Amino acid sequence: AVVCAFLTFAGLLPEQWRLTANLIAPLIFLSSLGYVLSFWWNRNDRYGKSAAYNVVHSVTNNVSKVALGFAGWHKWGLVISAFIGQVVGVLTILFRIRTNGGEILRFRFGDIVAAARRHKAFALYSLPHKLINVLTVNMPIFVMCAAFDMVQVGFFALALNVAMRPMWAFARALNQVLFQRVGENESRDESSALLLNSICRRMVLVFVPLVVVLWMLQPWLTEVFFGTEWVAASGLLRMMLPWMVCSFMALSLNFVPSVYGRQKAAFVVECVGFAVNVAALSVGAFVVRNVVVCVSILSMVNCLYSVGQICWYLMLAAKRNTQ
């Protein structure tokens, strides 16, 4: 916030970037607060409140995007909708603190410092892991902007936001619930292999018929909700459906390496995924130079990568079961 204020008053920050720059600090604070509160609710077996934050945040963000787009706020709509989503999500989870979680407001800095020192190795692997993941998720848009015209990129961006973002929000909510359950099993020296295998089977049984129905209805749904000018995006949405399902399953289980102390290996796997995505995007965007082929390759590669992640997670649980 201090840096942004200095750049603004010094006239070094272009006017079109000022609103975005000034919202960076509040967004970081609100998102961090949301993660802390979500962890607190999970730690105290209140999974519904934690899941509510993720769902409300994502739904509010996406609804705000659509509403501001229809209102003509094309310039600042994405930034403002992200801010609104964070504010509403955090308020949702703060609303219950008075009666259910007042303990979180009592800071004991000595304990915080001691815990940070004791668990510093976790951050050393987890932070780079998360940064690589953020790069992997956002990289397709940046690469496509350099290779294709903005109309084609807009179709892909719409498909990405409609298909992937809401699913990722629900996957994070499921991730937090499963993380707590598997962590509790590990602390009691109990196996979680049967639980994770059962969850995967149930997700497959739910998603396979859902994907078939969405595949058939996709052009009609796109035309109804976004208009005939966006029907071209339905083809990209169809290609991204398998990617969406596999990504949902992998994201729901990506806590497994942390539970079993395999953060370093998980970081290596994430780096491999980043390299694979770079290769897929390079071929589709700069060799073939076709947006449909680019999205097809990206979807296929990410499906295979996510399936590999899921198999590894289940192998870790199974290996723990045999020890």
Give an overview in words:
By secondary structure, the chain is mostly helical. 86% of the residues lie in helices and 0% in strands. Helix 2 packs parallel to helix 4, helix 3 packs antiparallel against helix 8 and helix 9 runs antiparallel to helix 13. The N and C termini lie far apart (50 Å). 28% of the residues are buried.
The stretches of 5 or more residues where confidence is low (pLDDT under 50) are none
Average pLDDT for all residues: 79
The beta-strand count equals: 0
H/E element sequence: HHHHHHHHHHHHH
Main beta-sheet strand count, sense and barrel state: none
Query: Helix count?
Result: 13
Q: Quick one: overall form? A: globular
Helical content class = over 70%
Structural class: mainly alpha
- Report the end-to-end length measured between terminal Cα atoms: 50 Å
Rg calc: 21 Å
Keyphrases for this structure?
323 residues; 13 helices; globular
Describe the structure in brief.
This protein has 323 residues and is mostly helical.
Give the helices and strands, then pairings:
Elements: H1 2-9, H2 15-43, H3 47-70, H4 77-94, H5 97-100, H6 109-118, H7 120-147, H8 150-187, H9 193-226, H10 232-253, H11 256-259, H12 263-288, H13 291-322
Helix pairs in contact: 2-3, 2-4, 3-4, 3-8, 7-12, 8-10, 9-10, 9-13, 10-13, 12-13
